Amino acid sequence: MSDKMNDSDDGLDYVQDLPGFKPNNPTYFDNDVIDHLLGIVLDMGAELWVVKDRLAFLEETLEKSGIDVVETLDKGRPSDALQVQLKEQRVQMIQRVYGRLYGSYGGDNAEQRGAILENLDVADS
Amino acid sequence: MLGTDAAYPRGKTAGLYPALPTRSDEAYAEFVEDARNCLLHAQQHPIAEFSRQKMRDSKMSQTSDSESTNAAVEFLMQDPTIKTYYRIKRSLQESFWQCLYNAYDRERETLEAAIEAADDKGPGSVHYDPNFQVPEYATAHIHLQPGGYTGDPLAGYLYDYGLKVFAGGAADNDVLAMMAAGAARPPADGKVARVLDLGASTGATTTALKTTHPDADVCGIDISAPMVRYAHLRAIEQDIDVHFKQMAAEQMEFPDEHFDIMLAVLLFHEVPVAIAKKIIAEAFRVLRPGGTLTVLDFPGDRSNDAYTMFFVDMDAADNGEPFLPDYVRSNIEDLLVEAGFEVQDYNPAMALATGRVAVKPAS
Questions:
Q1: Phi and psi at residue B271, to the nearest 5°
Q2: How do residues B83-112 score in pLDDT, each as one tens digit?
Q3: The predicted structure's pLDDT at residue B135
Q4: Which residue in A110, A119, B311, B347 could disulfide with B42, CB within 3.0 to 4.6 Å?
């Protein structure tokens, strides 16, 4: 279903070709990997800062409540349920942040596979 | 059993791996493990397809000979995405080892004491010689592991956790080792009194062999003293009665016709071909007639194309696998036949994708 007006009726076909009209992935360097890497570095800075901010806030909040968590954070381990959540989020983050590096052949959507078996299996691919 | 609670205050991870000293170390390792799964393992098939298509489009030779392989390396490593794959592979490897080494090094005194304390405890035993002359080939930093297999007293710890991460979780709870032990074919007459694990490293396969053959005397040999000492500690933590000896597989100290089953998991690609030939000759000597040697390792180059050999060459240079290309080109099944073995069919559903079962003919 579409309720868009047909631009050709109004002589507006040309807008499709205007720079910036269609979403795209511009590259500014001769090697598109450099473009991706700069994007990743910025993304990682943001990801890291969110974690630092949240951790500092958490420690301050707990300290005000009389709870010293440093020992627990160093020597403990998240609950099994949280570890499952963390793994899911970790994989999503890796795919979201770095997957673009393999976009040229569709590797950003690559199926997850095993490791050792895969190494030996490449000969048969 | 050995109490290692003091050495591993954070317990074990994924069954048998001593947990890293802090949650931050562990989180770093988890990130690397998942990054490898997403950015390396998951990419192997699509990047292989992409690379082969590029080579076809440019009418490159697809054969596995050295000339075509060298041309493939030069051609494919011009591509930004393929360069990126190998940069990521190398960087993840380097940063992970640094993390792991630093983590264990902080606990070095405690961990070395745990190994020392295990030396004289049972079940099972460990024998090593402080004056053992390690051949130069065995000092290579395989997989870029700091100190290699022989140069650091904590090499076993490093290798064990390294395998966990590099296998992307597939080796957790010794699942791979159990599969490998199950793939070691028993002799046709079913008599299994003595079993040898060649290149036992951390002993995971050795203990798995004992689980598979509980009535047999099971021994694991490795050229590295740190490995056999760690393997012994790891075995007694599981209360499994196996014996480890520091020994070069190319110069074994066992009598003729001593073993019924021998298993070599990912050993032969980590030694020069000349040494591999000596190991095979020694294996033939110490196996009894009708005994079996199962080799689980990379395939040879006969079914390979130029891309696969490109992959092999890149792995050699970037992943500390100096002997891998020569090993692949040696087609180890040929070496086994030359030594007098009969090579039987191998069922890849049993364990790793590529294996060979060599039988010493009954005289």
A1: -135, 155
A2: 999 999 999 999 899 999 999 999 999 999
A3: 94
A4: A110
Residue-range definition of the domain harbouring residue B315: 1-363
Q: Which chain A residues have a beta carbon less than 8 Å from that of B84?
A: 33, 36, 101-102
Q: With contact defined as beta carbons under 8 Å apart, do B275 and B209 qualify?
A: no
Residues near A62 by beta carbon (within 8 Å), at least 6 away in sequence: A68, A69
Rounded CA separation B281/B18 (Å) = 37
Tokens at A39, concatenated? 């994007």
Asked whether the beta carbons of residue A106 and residue B10 sit closer than 8 angstroms, the reply is no
Report CB contact under 8 Å: A122, B169: no
Query: Residue A26: is its pLDDT beyond 80?
Result: no
The pLDDT value given to residue A31 = 85
Q: Is A121 on the interface with B (CB under 8 A)?
A: yes
Question: Which residue in B20, B25, B33, B84 has the most chain A C-beta atoms within 10 A of its own C-beta, making it the best mutation to test that interface?
Answer: B84
Tell me how many domains chain B contains: 1
**If 0-12 CB within 10 Å is exposed, 13-18 middle and 19+ buried, where does residue A78 land?**
middle
pLDDT at B183: 93
- Give the per-residue pLDDT at A7: 63
Query: What secondary structure, in 3-state letters, does B260-304 show?
Result: EEEEEECCHHHCCHHHHHHHHHHHHHHEEEEEEEEEECCCCCCCC
CB B76 within 8 A of CB B52: no
Q: Following CA atoms B91, B97, B103, B105 in sequence, which dihedral angle do they give, to the nearest 10 degrees? A: -130
Tokens of B158: 């490093």
